[in-house]
Amino acid sequence: MINKDVGPDVVESKLQSLLQRVLAAWERGDGRALAAEFADDGDIVFLEGSCLQGRPQIEAVMQHLFETTLRGTRYLAKVKALRFVTPEVALMQTLGGVVFPEETIIPAERCCVQTFVIVRIRGTWSVASFQNTRMRAGSLGIQHRADESWGLAPRGAFPGRADGTSSGARGRGQAKKDGGQAPR
Question: What pTM, to 2 d.p., does this model score?
Answer without folding.
Answer: 0.73
